[in-house]
UniProtKB/TrEMBL annotation:
InterPro entries: Ald_Oxase/Xan_DH_a/b (IPR000674), AldOxase/xan_DH_MoCoBD1 (IPR008274), AldOxase/xan_DH_MoCoBD2 (IPR046867), AldOxase/xan_DH_Mopterin-bd_sf (IPR037165), N-heterocyclic_Hydroxylase (IPR052516), OxRdtase_Mopterin-bd_su_IorB (IPR012368), TAT_signal (IPR006311)
GO molecular function: oxidoreductase activity
Leader sequence residues: none
Protein name as annotated: Xanthine dehydrogenase family protein molybdopterin-binding subunit
Matching SMART domains: Ald_Xan_dh_C
Organism phylogeny: Bacteria, Pseudomonadati, Pseudomonadota, Gammaproteobacteria, Cellvibrionales
Organism annotation: Parahaliea mediterranea
Residue intervals of the Aldehyde oxidase/xanthine dehydrogenase a/b hammerhead domain: 218-308
The organism's place on the tree of life at top rank: Bacteria
Length: 751
C-alpha cells in the first residue's frame, strides 16, 4: 500500500486557479482502492483520495467531500481537518459532495482522477488525519507567501487568523479571498509546513453539527429514493424467493394490462456457487409510477424452480454446526504453546458454547438506484457506498468505457455494510439497457429482508483452563459458521476463516497456551459485512465467557478482566484496525465505564450490572449495562459507555455513533434474527423483524470519551460489539440465568 508520505510532492498536491480568480487545491492520499473486493473489510489498498479546497475572491471557502455520507458524519469531520490547518472561519465553509472521478493512466489502467471514494471499515478519519491536515497547512502557507510577496516582507513575520493573513509589525491584514489568485500561481512548497499542536486547535475536537443538518430536518436532503432524471420510468422486481432458485415460466398478460405498465424484463440470477452480480433471478415490471409497477408485479403468474437449497433451514444449519464441533478438530488458525498439556495439568476447566443467528441490514432506505444507459455513456445516481464498484459493474454489463460512466452519490439512508455490494446497481442497469430509458429501481421492505448479504450466524465453543490462583492458563476457541467470503473470487477454501476470526484479538498473548479452530459451514445464504463484521459474534462469545470464568473463581468480573489484560502493553495486531493492540487502552475504557456506572455499589433484588469491552477497527469500547428483571420480564435501565478512539475530531459525531451502537447492539441482541425454512427467508417486514423501539431503549444512556492522546481511529463500528455481552452478563448478575444465545427474546420476556 502506498503512503502519502512516500508520494512525490507534486503528485500529492495539485495547485491551480479556480474560475473567477480563486485558489484551487487538489490533494492525493491513500484510500479505498479500485480493486478491493466488494464487501470486504481490511486495510485500504493502494489508491488515492482527493479533496478540493477552493477559495473564492470574496473569501468563501468550499471544501469537497468525496466519501459517501451515510450518517457516520464524514461530510462534516473530514472537511474540519482541512479547515483547521487552513485557519478559516468554520461558519464560512461550504461543503460539497463530490461525484466519482476516475481516469485512465498511461498503462491503460483505471485510477482515480482526483479522489478515491468509498467508505467501510471505520477508516475515513484515521486514513485522512495526517494528509488532510498537511493539505490545509499547505494552502495556508501559499496564502501567507502571497501576502509576504505583496507586502515585501519576510514570511516569518506573518501569521494567520481565521480567513486572513496578518502582519503584526505593520498592522496590516489581507483576507484569503484577496490573496487567492496570487496564491494559485505560486509553486508548491517542497515539504509539508508545520502542523498545529493539539493545544492550538480551534475546530478539531470541538462539537459541530452536521453541515447539512437543516436540510435533513426540513426534508431537503437528497437520498437515493429522491433521485430524478427527465423521462425516467420506475421498476420493481419479483425475485425468486428460494436461494439460487430459477425462473421456469412467467405469464405476464395480466401485468401488462395494468394501466401504466410499460414493459416486463427478465433478470437472470447467478449460477449456484458463482460470484454474485445480482442476488436472484427475477421478473422486473417497468411502469410510469412505482405504484403501477407494484400493481403489475402483483398480477404476475410465475413458476419457480426452487433450486439446490430448497431443503435448507436455520434449524438444520444449527444441527450441522453442533455436529461439526462434536465430531472432529477444525482448521487450526492459531496454535500457540501446548493447549492439550495445559488442560491436562489444570486445576479446573470451564467450557461453554455461544450462538448468534443470521441478521439482516434493514437499512431504513431500502435499496434503490437510478440508471440511464445511452450509446455514449451511462449515469448512475443512488445511495452508493462503493462508486468504483458501481462503475465497474455498469462497464461489465454494458461494455461502455468507464470514463463515460458517471456515478453520483446521494446521501445514504443507512449502510451498515449492505451497500458495499452493488447488486441493486446491476439490476437497474440490466433493466435500463432493455427499455432504453432512465430507470428508477425501487426495492420494498420485503425485498430488502428476503434478498440481503446477511451477517453470518455461528456457533462458538470455548474452553479455558484455570490454575489454583484462578488465572487462565489455556484457551481453546472453535467456531463453526458460514464464511462471508463465500462465492468470492480469489478466496481459497482454507482462507474462509479470515472473515470470521481475528487471531490477534484478546486473549492472544494474554494466556500462554491458545488454539483457534474454524469449521467452514456450507449454506446457500448470501453473506456479507454487517457493522463490525465478525467482531459482534466474537465479542459476545469471548466477553460472556470471561464473565463466566470470573464467577467460576469467585472474582469480580471487572477485576478479573483487568488482571487478564495485565500491565499496559502494545502487542502486534495484523488484522484490520492494527498495527497494534494496546492492553492499557482497553483497560482504560473498562475502568472509566465502571467508575461512571458506580460499579460495585449495591443493586436492588432483581437488578444487576454487567460489563464488557472490546477492540474493533482501532477503537476501544466498553459498556456497563444495568437491568431489572421483574416477574420474569427484562427491562434495560441504564447503559454507560466509554470509548477511546484517539482524538475525537467532532465529539458530537463520536457520541452519536456511540448512541447508534448502543441502539443497534441492543436491538440486535433483544429481537433480531433471520431464519430460513425450506430454502426461503421467513421474515417479511418489521412486524417479523422488529427493530428496537423506544419501549426497548434504556431509560438512561451515558457516553464518555477517553482522551488518550492517540491519533484518531475508527468510530462507526467499535460501539457495537461489547453491548450484547454486557447485557447478558447483567442478566446473569440479576437472575443467575446465563444466556448464551441470541436473540434474547427466545430466552426471556421483555418488559
Amino acid at each position: 500500500m502506498n503512503d502519502a508520505a512516500h508520494l512525490p510532492r507534486r503528485r500529492f498536491l495539485q495547485l491551480g486557479a479556480a474560475v473567477g480568480g480563486g485558489l484551487l487545491l487538489g490533494i492525493r492520499l491513500p484510500a479505498l482502492g479500485e480493486e478491493k473486493p466488494a464487501g470486504s473489510i481490511g486495510a485500504p489498498p493502494e489508491g488515492t483520495l482527493a479533496f478540493f479546497v477552493r477559495i473564492d475572491p470574496d473569501g468563501a471557502v468550499t471544501i469537497g467531500s468525496p466519501q459517501p455520507e451515510m450518517g457516520q458524519g464524514v461530510k462534516t469531520s473530514l472537511p474540519m481537518l482541512i479547515a483547521e490547518e487552513l485557519d478559516v472561519d468554520w461558519a464560512r465553509v461550504r461543503v460539497a459532495q463530490m461525484p466519482m472521478g476516475i481516469q485512465r493512466n498511461t498503462e491503460g489502467q483505471m485510477s482515480w482522477l482526483h479522489v478515491g471514494q468509498g467508505a467501510g471499515g471505520s477508516t475515513s478519519i484515521a486514513s485522512s488525519w495526517q494528509p488532510l491536515r498537511e493539505a490545509g497547512a499547505t494552502a495556508r502557507q501559499l496564502l501567507t507567501q502571497a501576502a509576504a510577496n505583496r507586502w515585501q516582507v519576510d514570511i516569518g513575520s506573518l501569521s494567520t487568523e481565521p480567513g486572513a493573513v496578518v502582519h503584526a509589525g505593520g498592522n496590516r491584514r489581507l483576507g484569503y479571498g484577496e490573496l487567492a489568485a496570487e496564491a494559485a500561481r505560486l509553486p508548491l512548497p517542497t515539504a509539508p509546513p508545520p502542523l498545529k499542536a493539539p493545544g492550538e486547535f480551534r475546530i478539531i475536537g470541538t462539537p459541530r453539527p452536521v453541515v447539512d443538518a437543516e436540510d435533513i430536518v426540513t426534508g431537503r436532503a437528497r437520498y437515493g429514493i429522491d433521485a430524478r432524471l427527465p423521462g425516467q420510468v420506475y421498476a420493481v422486481i419479483e425475485r425468486c424467493p428460494w436461494l439460487d432458485g430459477r425462473l421456469l415460466t412467467v405469464d405476464d398478460k395480466a401485468a401488462r394490462a395494468v394501466p401504466g405498465v410499460i414493459d416486463i424484463v427478465l433478470i437472470e440470477g447467478p449460477a449456484a456457487g458463482e460470484p454474485y452480480t445480482v442476488l436472484a433471478s427475477g421478473v422486473a415490471v417497468v411502469a410510469s409510477s412505482t405504484w403501477a409497477a407494484e400493481r403489475g408485479r402483483r398480477a404476475l403468474n410465475i413458476r419457480w424452480d426452487r433450486g439446490p437449497h430448497a431443503k435448507e433451514s436455520s434449524a438444520g444449519l444449527r444441527r450441522r454446526m453442533e455436529e461439526a464441533l462434536a465430531a472432529s478438530d477444525g482448521q487450526v488458525v492459531l496454535d500457540e504453546g501446548d493447549v492439550e498439556q495445559a488442560f491436562a495439568g489444570a486445576s479446573d476447566s470451564v467450557e461453554a458454547s455461544y450462538y448468534v443467528p443470521y441478521v439482516a441490514h434493514a437499512t431504513l432506505e431500502p435499496q434503490c438506484c437510478l440508471v440511464e444507459v445511452r450509446e455514449d455513456g451511462a449515469t448512475v445516481i443512488g445511495p452508493i457506498q462503493m462508486p468504483a464498484a458501481a462503475s465497474r459493474m455498469v462497464h461489465q454489463l454494458t461494455g461502455l468505457d468507464r470514463l463515460s460512466i458517471e456515478v453520483q452519490m446521494t446521501r445514504l439512508g443507512g449502510g451498515f455494510g449492505r451497500r458495499l455490494t452493488v447488486d441493486y446497481v446491476a439490476e437497474a442497469t440490466l433493466i435500463a439497457q432493455q427499455v432504453k430509458r432512465p430507470v428508477k429501481l425501487q426495492w420494498n421492505r420485503r425485498d430488502d429482508l428476503h434478498h440481503d448479504f446477511y451477517r453470518p450466524g455461528g456457533l462458538q465453543q470455548l474452553r479455558a483452563a484455570l490454575n489454583d490462583k484462578g488465572e487462565v492458563t489455556a484457551w481453546r476457541q472453535r467456531l463453526a459458521s458460514p464464511s462471508k467470503y463465500y462465492r468470492r473470487d480469489g478466496v481459497a477454501e482454507d482462507g474462509m476463516w479470515e472473515s470470521e476470526l481475528y487471531p490477534d484479538d484478546p486473549p492472544r498473548r494474554l494466556v500462554p497456551h491458545l488454539r483457534l479452530e474454524y469449521f467452514a459451514m456450507q449454506s446457500g445464504m448470501p453473506r456479507g459485512s454487517w457493522r463490525a463484521p465478525a467482531h459482534c459474534a466474537n465479542a459476545f462469545a469471548v466477553q460472556s465467557f470471561i464473565d463466566e470464568l470470573a464467577h467460576r473463581v469467585n472474582a469480580d468480573p471487572l477485576q478479573f478482566q483487568l488482571r487478564l489484560l495485565g500491565e499496559p502493553r502494545e502487542f502486534p495486531y495484523e488484522q484490520h484496525g492494527g498495527p497494534i493492540f494496546d492492553t492499557g487502552r482497553l483497560a482504560g475504557v473498562l475502568r472509566l465505564a465502571a467508575e461512571r456506572a458506580d460499579w460495585g455499589s449495591p443493586m436492588p433484588a432483581g437488578s444487576g450490572r454487567g460489563i464488557a469491552g472490546h477492540f474493533t477497527f482501532g477503537g476501544y469500547c466498553a459498556y456497563v449495562v444495568e437491568v431489572t428483571v421483574t416477574d420474569g420480564k427484562l427491562r434495560v435501565d441504564r447503559v454507560v459507555g466509554a470509548l477511546d478512539c484517539g482524538l475525537a475530531v467532532n465529539p458530537n459525531h463520536v457520541k452519536a455513533q456511540m448512541e447508534s451502537g448502543i441502539h443497534d447492539g441492543l436491538s440486535t441482541a433483544l429481537r433480531l434474527r433471520i431464519t430460513l425454512q425450506d430454502g426461503r427467508v421467513q421474515q417479511d417486514n418489521f412486524d417479523s423483524y422488529p427493530l428496537g423501539s423506544l419501549a426497548d431503549a434504556p431509560r438512561v444512556v451515558e457516553t464518555y470519551l477517553v482522551d488518550s492522546g492517540a491519533a484518531p481511529s475508527g468510530v462507526g463500528e467499535p460501539p457495537i460489539p461489547p453491548l450484547a455481552p454486557a447485557l447478558t452478563n447483567a442478566i446473569f448478575a440479576a437472575t443467575g440465568q446465563r444466556i448464551r444465545e441470541l436473540p434474547l427474546i427466545d430466552h426471556i420476556d421483555l418488559a
